[in-house]
Design a protein that fits this description.
Layout: H1 12-17, H2 23-27, E1 37-43, E2 49-51, E3 56-66, E4 71-80, E5 89-91, E6 99-102, E7 109-119, H3 120-123, E8 131-141, E9 146-159, E10 161-168, E11 177-188, E12 193-196, E13 201-208, E14 215-221, E15 227-233, E16 238-244, E17 253-254, E18 258-260
Parallel strand pairs: 2-9
Antiparallel strand pairs: 1-3, 3-7, 4-5, 4-8, 6-7, 8-9, 10-11, 11-12, 11-15, 13-14, 13-16, 16-17, 16-18
Length: 263
């Protein structure tokens, strides 16, 4: 995949059709084509990109490019799909050139950075886009030699999740049973709503009054519509919450603690 101009208006079809990798080559370890090498590729500071229904975020990609002829320009963007030929989306829509600074101690190496905006409502219209995205980097050196690396790094783009909690009765006598309910939902980019996330492991945690530390009491699996329900014994005043650690397609969620007065 090659982008010949930072100001060119490129469609996804044009971008992905510019490189065709034979099946035999796809089975072999991927190496950049050309004279440049890429290193220290980092997307979003090494953190997952978690997006709700209308989330807008600025994503930054940084990388180093080294070329014996000296790098002249470099580009980077994200793409999603099984390979570049069958990519179903890429970000940003029109990749700008990175801002590259030549190393003061090594004229063959430049440190590059580029930032772009991601708008969940505009850029992510299918839930299938949640998961692993690849980083494509391209460079042009002083002799007009071009180097491409279709998978220079990866990053996770995830659907935002929310958790709610309710512990009752309140107040409650010591030793009595407390019922803790709640719900785990996540952003549905297709419907534009938050929908229940079924079959997920969620931790019930408790923090006694006056403490800053939560302790896990048990793990519960979400039911239909992402519902959560369990029971526990009332022992002391404190806060109950549900904690979801996330999956490969969905970000983590922690409910705000619900206080129960034990008498």
């Amino acid at each position: 995949m090659r982008i010949r101009s930072a100001v060119a208006v490129v469609s996804l079809a044009t971008a992905v059709s510019a490189s065709v990798v034979p099946a035999a080559a796809q089975a072999a370890p991927r190496v950049p084509i050309g004279g440049s090498t890429f290193s220290n590729v980092l997307v979003n500071g090494g953190k997952d990109i978690v997006l709700g229904l209308t989330t807008r975020k600025t994503v930054t990609i940084t990388w180093n490019v080294t070329d014996p002829e000296g790098p002249l320009a470099s580009w980077a963007f994200l793409w999603h799909g099984p390979n570049t030929d069958d990519a179903d989306s890429h970000l940003p829509a029109y990749p700008p050139a990175g801002t590259c600074t030549v190393s003061p101690t090594d004229p063959t190496t430049s440190a590059c950075t580029m930032s772009f905006g991601v708008d969940a409502a505009r850029d992510l219209d299918h839930n299938s886009l949640a998961g692993t995205w690849n980083v494509l980097i391209e460079a042009q050196d002083a002799t007009d030699d071009w180097t491409d690396d279709d998978v220079a790094a990866t990053v996770k783009i995830k659907r935002n999740a929310k958790a709610t909690v309710n512990a009752s009765p309140e107040p409650v006598k010591k030793g009595r049973t407390i019922t803790v309910t709640g719900k785990l939902t996540r952003a549905n980019w297709e419907s534009g709503t938050y929908t229940g996330y079924r079959g997920q492991s969620v931790k019930l945690q408790f923090r006694k009054k006056g403490s800053s530390t939560y302790t896990t009491l048990k793990t519960v699996t979400t039911g239909s519509g992402g519902t959560l329900k369990t029971t526990t014994k009332a022992t002391k005043d404190g806060y109950f919450r549900w904690v979801f650690t996330g999956t490969g397609t969905t970000g983590p969620a922690t409910a705000t603690g619900d206080f129960v007065d034990v008498r």
